[in-house]
Amino acid sequence: MRKLLIIFTVSLAATLLCGAIITYPMWSGLLKSHETVAETSAQPEEPDGTDAVKAEEPAVKPVVEAIPTPTPEPFEEYDITLMAVGDDLLHLGLVNSGKQPDGTLNYDFLYEDIAPYLDKSDISIINQETIMAGNQLGFSGFPYFNSPVEVADAIEKAGFNVVLQSTNHTIDQGLDGLLNVCKVWDEHPNVLMVGIHEDTADARDIPIMEIKDKKFAILNYTYGPNLGAVPSDIIGHMNILCKIKEGSNYNELDLTTLDPAVIEDIEKAETMADIVIVCPHWGTEYATEPSSYQIKWAKQMTEAGADVIIGAHPHVPEPVEWISAPNGNRCLCYYSLGNYVSTGQEGKSMLEGMAWVVFHVTEDGVAVDENRTGVLPLVMQYLSGPLRFEGVYALDDYTDELASKHGIRSWGGVNLTVEKLRTWSSEIFGEWTLSKEYVLED
């Protein structure tokens, strides 16, 4: 058995040795081929001939077209237009004109004649001379006015969006009357009411109106109530133009000195708005020239930063002019636009001005367009026997036939004519006069 195992082992070894000898050439070649491939992969091929020349040439970079920088669109310049009228002075003849057959009150008619101008303006200002203290108190005229609250409805409906409420008649019905008119305007959110405050904490706030991305600050002050002093309970509720005398026990006003708070408000407004508009209730009644105080205060306001001044109170129109301050500031000043409506007895009170201001907006800012700004002369027409409102006309449209029917002939003893009105207009407004066609052109 052991001998057979030895023989089997020797035979198997011999067989394996013979197979290895026979297949050696084949697996030896395969091994060499594998080594060659490995060496080729590990070492870069040495270029020669044409291939070497190609290797030395720089690689061709792909052409990438540059993305053009978009050209910014040029700034599109535009205009913002302001119109303003004078005192909405509701004598009882005008109050009675609004009584309807069914007993209700409506005052839309007071503003219908100027609808085309209101439609074209972005900022529309009216000075509400008389207070709306509440219909339950009854209506009254001079010297202590109380006008129907329905007037506010008509003002908003007409398209006015700014109402000046600080006048010498603001407290004709006391503090309660002032507070009532604040509540009235709270019910008309489309109208910015300025000049008085329900809460005294708001007294130094700057009213801002934003139009087409530009901010307009609109400030309103009165020289004072018809008292020569300011009652203690009124302070902070009404914006006062004049300084209160130092040491006065009754808040007596210094009618020759501008309240420093006005200057502070204008300076603050200038930091908040693009344009500052100041609307002072000032001047001498029935004087068609500004007083020395108006001129002095207008210059102080200009130096503080006012861009436009629109005055009220004299009940007649006064001139328009550019004011230059020592610091280089300029301001367009309408000293007075006169009355918008009234049944006054002064002939020149029937002539009035509509301020028309075009602000031109460029990429650099906004400024008054001097070439398209001025004043449109208007005429207020009423009838007498009884006194009733008839209409407001552009002076361009006013005729001698209308003048011959004007109630001021019998009520005021004034022989009103177109020639007189045009003469007054020329003397007061001069080169600032605009025509109706010019204002309404597209």
Relevant terms:
6-stranded mixed beta sheet; Purple Acid Phosphatase, chain A, domain 2; 9-stranded mixed beta sheet; 442 residues; globular; disordered N terminus; alpha/beta; single chain
Structural domain count? 1
Beta-strand share of residues: 15-25%
Rg of Cα set: 43 Å
Label the structural class. alpha/beta
Overall, the morphology is: globular
Major β-sheet annotation: 9 strands, mixed
Count helical runs. Answer: 12
What is the architecture at the second tier of CATH?
4-Layer Sandwich
What's the number of extended β-strand segments? 17
CATH topology: Purple Acid Phosphatase, chain A, domain 2
Pattern of helices and strands: HHEHHEHEHEEEEEHEHEEEEEEEEHHHH
Would you spell out the secondary-structure blueprint of this structure?
Blueprint: H1 2-42, H2 50-56, E1 78-88, H3 92-97, H4 115-120, E2 123-127, H5 150-158, E3 162-164, H6 174-186, E4 192-194, E5 208-211, E6 214-222, E7 242-244, E8 253-258, H7 260-272, E9 275-281, H8 292-304, E10 308-310, E11 320-324, E12 330-334, E13 339-341, E14 351-362, E15 365-368, E16 374-383, E17 388-394, H9 400-404, H10 408-411, H11 418-429, H12 436-440
